Amino acid sequence: LVKIWNAETGDEVGTLAGNTGEVSSVTSSSDGRFIVSKSSGKNRNDGALKIWDAATGAEVCSLTGDAANATAFALSPDGKNFVTGSDDGVVKIWDTATGQQVRAWRGHSSYISAIAFSPDGKFVVSG
Q1: Cβ neighbours of residue 111 under 8 Å, at least 6 residues apart?
Q2: Half-sphere exposure (CA, 13 Å, Cβ side) for 103?
Q3: All residues at 6 or more sequence positions from 48 whose CB lies less than 8 Å from its CB, including other chains
Q4: Residue 69 contacts residue 44 (beta carbons within 8 Å)
Q5: How many angstroms separate the Cα of 32 from the Cα of each of 23, 62, 74, 120, 126?
Q6: Do 118 and 125 meet the contact criterion of CB atoms below 8 Å apart?
Q7: In 3D, which of 34, 82, 89, 26 has the Cα closest to residue 56?
Q8: Cα-flanking dihedrals φ and ψ of residue 7, to 5°?
């Protein structure tokens, strides 16, 4: 379950239901259009990475497998893409609207614990 709160009043303004396991992390796009949540399951492949429409609360897409096993993720500044890093050292860029992988590259020898887009969206930084 993902809860959305008004930062000034503390009032709950929305709930995103649909994650099957415990939600381990969430982020939102800087333009406010999308929310991404990651849930974990009992086994490595049980989790899911879900993209939500922030205005309606509708699930845009749900990714399992490689995307769900991400150890780090971030949305691009324009919300069009998101990037994941995983325990095998692979960085992947995904299309937010479709959930399709756009590109991937290996640049780490092991676990990626942090990942981000630059403010202009031209670079991905990972560590």
Answers
A1: 71, 86, 87, 89
A2: 4
A3: 19, 20, 21, 38, 39, 41, 62, 63, 64, 68
A4: yes
A5: 20, 19, 13, 16, 23
A6: yes
A7: 34
A8: -65, -25
**Which pair of tokens denotes residue 9?**
């009043």
**If you count them, how many residues does the chain have?**
127
CA dist 6 and 32 (Å) reads 14
82 neighbors 101 (Cβ within 8 angstroms):
no
- Range 86-106 burial, b when 16+ CB lie within 10 A, else e: beebbbbbbebeebeeeeeee
73: part of which helix (H) or strand (E)?
strand 70-75
Q: What is the mean pLDDT of each run of 10 residues along the chain (127 residues)?
A: 94 89 88 89 70 92 80 91 92 92 91 94 96
